[in-house]
Amino acid sequence: MIGALAAWSMRRSSHLTLIFHRVLTARDPMSPGEPTAVWFDGLMSTLARRFEMIALDDAVQRAERGELHGRTLSVTFDDGYADNYEVALPILQRHGVPATFFIASGFLDGGRMWNDSIIETCRVLAPGEHESADAEIGTITLSDWDSRRQAAARLIKAWKHLPLEQRHERVARFSALADSLPDNLMMRTDQLRDMAATPGVTIGGHTVSHPILAALPAEQARAEITAGKQALEDKLQRELTLFAYPNGKQGPDYRVEHAQMVRDAGFQAAVATDWGTLSNTTDHFQIPRFTPWNANLDRFCVDLARCHHGLL
After folding, report:
1. Which of 28-32, 61-65, 180-184, 305-309 is predicted least confidently?
2. Average pLDDT of every residue of the chain
3. d(Cα 181, Cα 121) in Å, to the nearest integer?
4. What CATH number labels 2-110+184-308?
5. Contact predicate 48/92, CB 8 Å
6. Sorting pLDDT into bands at 50, 70 and 90, what band is 69?
7. Long-range contacts for 161-168 (Cβ within 8 Å, ≥24 apart)?
8. How large is the average pLDDT for residues 86-96?
9. Domain edges within the chain
10. Once rounded to an integer, what is the mean pLDDT over residues 105-128?
């Protein structure tokens, strides 16, 4: 009986953390799964009525004190896209929802994520066959939106876990096929500073160049973690206490030694992308998160409630 009560109490103390990357003004045929402003607005409105929306650092502090209770939920964003500031932030403010934004410092002010270079290249290349810069893949054929999405997804999957320099070289060769690619996908420093000064917003570290830490030599991984933190702290003149592992799966993307590096860098907690919830006993350097999985908002909130009670 005591064991059953303890298990029930553990489920009751679980905290949910959602992860987003972008919120777009309208549906993008190259990324149809990304949330639109209308859908995100509806989600935040619904969640704010059904959950206690708290900042992630507040959730961590409650867990440290053993005081996670009730239906609590945090919202997080990864990478540092400009639409986080331009589209998502006004929606979050309208509904009084706090959020944490994990920023890869090296892409601010005109940079571009490597996967976006692939997506945007596949978007703008003329219909026909094109060299992929990968001998195993060979040529790719682009025609309609479906073929362009499939080609981008194939290249991203093939190159994601390559050594950083090799991945960079292949992306550079492939993206050179395009005449021009956008340079306004990521936030500018002035936008980041304005966001950081907004009540309810927390900024966290996300490395410099968003590498797969498990694919790097130890010292290079440590440098990515610490240099990213220092660059953001220099820009914002405040200490960063939260970190998000790039890609975020334990094993293929980061390992226990990387969690120790994050701790050594001075962070107080870190989030992954492994499925699960935060409880009073969770390792604060491996906090689970998940992405919304149901476009139907009512169904999604019911599933969240079941997840909170340990039923999913």
Report:
1. 305-309
2. 91
3. 7
4. 3.20.20.370
5. no
6. confident
7. 161/212, 161/215, 161/252, 162/215, 163/215, 163/216, 164/209, 164/211, 164/212, 164/215, 164/216, 164/220, 167/114, 168/114
8. 98
9. 2-110+184-308, 114-175
10. 97
Give the DSSP letter string of the chain. -HHHHHHHHHHHT-BEEEEES--BSS-BTTBTTSPBHHHHHHHHHHHHHHSEE--HHHHHHHHHTT---SSEEEEEEEE-BHHIIIIIHHHHHHTT--EEEEE-GGGTTT---HHHHHHHHHHHSPSEEEE-S-TTT-EEEE-SHHHHHHHHHHHHHHHTTS-HHHHHHHHHHHHTTSS---S-SB--HHHHHHHHTSTTEEEEE--SS---GGGS-HHHHHHHHHHHHHHHHHHHTS---EEE-SS--BTTTB-HHHHHHHHHTT-SEEE--SS--B-TTS-TTSB--B----SSHHHHHHHHHHHHTT--
CA distance to 28, 133, 141, 206, per residue, from 119 (Å): 11, 15, 14, 21
Check whether 101 has a pLDDT greater than 90. yes
- In the block, tokens 């070289």 appear at 169
At residue 192, what is the residue type?
Answer: L
Helix 145-159 / helix 164-175 crossing angle, nearest 10 deg: 150
pTM: 0.92
Convert the pLDDT of each residue in 236-257 to its tens digit. Answer: 999 999 999 999 999 999 999 9
C-alpha to C-alpha distances, 28 to 31, 37, 140, 145, 274, nearest whole angstrom: 5, 12, 21, 10, 26
Each residue of 133-159: pLDDT tens digit? 999 999 999 999 999 999 999 999 999
- Which tens digits make up the pLDDT trace of 127-136? 999 999 999 9
Strand partners, 17: 74
Residue for token pair 């933190």: 229
